[in-house]
């Protein structure tokens, strides 16, 4: 079968195409014929680390969807032919997060990911693909979709009458925007591009701010909301955005701490949190149970993920370059 490996050897491409034997499912496992895989900002960070060693031979990408084509013994919940997507943390099935789950993140330091024709996973690490979604659409869900769902809805309780702020128009942000629109919450989008803001408006964004033209976007946001601010904030930027997010939070609001788009380790002035009786909710993606709950919501609201561009298997380096350019709107996908 064909696959990609990360490569840490100097002077060679960081992504190399390889031919591998088809894996066989053991007891409790299934084999998936992967139809599509999607890229996340995390995959750029991992690619950048590949040159430092430790990731040699790792199959990249956490996100993929396909069809079950073989089943090991003792698997009762799936059949050959079922359409499935893999959950980001192979071992986080339900309940609270445990640090031990980190090693099981697909395409991460310790566990192979989805950029291969066939992947074997435990039967418990999968969810059914909603019937209204194509494989390309389903492949966008595991990281970006589940992160937005877990933070905003499972933990954040976002609903009608709330006001959401999202940073930019990448994968996590647009899932947040679509969830807000489906719930009847107001959405505020900040973006580097007026053209992207116009597209965000068509998805339900109602307050649109270009953060390049308006670097003090928190001031503009407060003016546009008559001083009320945002009840829910998808904090995707990190150090470069955190203080403005804090100055944008409504009384009793929630900052969902997720992103590192401007770097790691924000050192925000947290005083405002106390004066506004606001909360910070830290999120690392989510569990199989979060994924399944999100899929029910996607089905109920007939939500289709926003796919920016689909690349062929031979074009994986181009797909990474496109994501790195930041010119995308929504998700970048590879079709196998
Ligand atoms: N904690 C977790 O479990 C978790 C899970 C998923 C993602 N993440 C993190 O969340 C972030 C978003 O991930 P993603 O995969 O959705 O990324 P993505 O699709 O690559 O989104 C990138 C977009 O973010 C916007 N952006 C960049 N810098 C910005 C800034 N300074 N202010 C506002 N917007 C900015 C840009 O949109 P415009 O062009 O519209 O400006 C850019 O196109 C990343 O840092 C990622 O590592 C964390």
Q: Would you kindly provide a written description of the structure presented here, covering whatever features stand out?
A:
The structure is a single chain. This protein has 336 residues and is of the alpha/beta class. The protein folds into two domains: 170 residues, Medium-chain alcohol dehydrogenases, catalytic domain (Quinone Oxidoreductase, Chain A, domain 1), CATH 3.90.180.10; 137 residues, NAD(P)-binding Rossmann-like Domain (Rossmann fold). 28% of the residues lie in helices and 26% in strands. Strands 3, 4, 5, 6, 7, 14 and 15 form a seven-stranded mixed β-sheet that branches. Strands 10-9-8-11-12-13 form a six-stranded parallel β-sheet, with helices on both faces. Strands 1-2 form a two-stranded antiparallel ribbon. Helix 6 runs parallel beside helix 7. The longest helix has 15 residues. The chain is globular, with a radius of gyration of 20 Å. The structure holds NADP nicotinamide-adenine-dinucleotide phosphate. NADP nicotinamide-adenine-dinucleotide phosphate binds next to helix 1, helix 3, helix 4 and strand 9. It comes from Bradyrhizobium rifense. GO terms for molecular function: oxidoreductase activity. InterPro entries: ADH-like_C, ADH-like_N, ER, GroES-like_sf, NAD(P)-bd_dom_sf, Zinc_ADH-like.
